[in-house]
Amino acid sequence: MRPDVICFSNALLVGVLKQLRERFAGPIYCTLQGDDVFLEALPENYRRQALEMMHGRAGEFDGFLVHSRYYRDFMAGYLRLPQERFHQLPLGIDLHGHDGEPGLGRDDVFTVGYFARICPEKGLHRLVEAFRVLHRSCPNIRLRAGGSLTKQDEAYLRNVRREARDLGEAFEYIGSPNTHAAKVEFLKSLDVLSVPTVYHEPKGLYVLEALANGVPVVQPRHGAFPELIEATGGGLLVEPDSIPDLARALEELRTQPQQRLDLGRQGQQRVRELFNRKRMAESTLALFANRSHNTVTDHTAETAGERH
What we know:
By secondary structure, this protein is an alpha/beta fold. It is built from twelve helices and ten strands.
């Protein structure tokens, strides 16, 4: 059975597009989820070659799927293509098992959490610095970090741990939970989550997962975060690269339990309404159905024109 639509998982696969076009007349889309981060990390010679190929071929896609206005605007410039080629779809998570409830305190110890890949780009080192500011005046708090760790980032984690020795048992890295239930239990143990990324995040799934369990967030004012906070009302934004401002926001939520509760409740409600997988699937199918009809008509007209 031939597909109605084909959707690439990233733009780095653009090299096979020409051959695919020779065999498939329907629409071909590409989802963009951080392609620039990978490209910018390549050695300069390879980065330049890859970008040249993408600039020459990316326009052959019928469209691109993004999950934030920020990434739409950024990638339109990055790929040198018109903004109308980029379609923003709601990000969605499977809410099954996310049964945390907003609370005035998980236990007697205020707990700041981090849950994302352990790497320099995600900014765990920044959170440790901000946490240290709070810890000096309030020793009875803790920082718990979880997330996957690749071999190439083991040295980074060792350095973070070395820098956090003065925090003693107040800082803990729990590793990467091996089940969904374990991940949810970790999130439910937090009073606030913060992933102060260095790079501009195009998505931010961890924000939605924390809010789904009633845990408010503190995030830098860049990338997709302002849009997520605006849509959910579930957290605070801080100045990027500012350790003092990050520490201030964490302290604000530590000392204002009612504010934490309100943010957690509102964020949880909005995530369940706006960022569920059903809404994401329906929006995606609606786009594909509409564009599939138009694209097939366009390709048919182009073929007819070639025959004449």
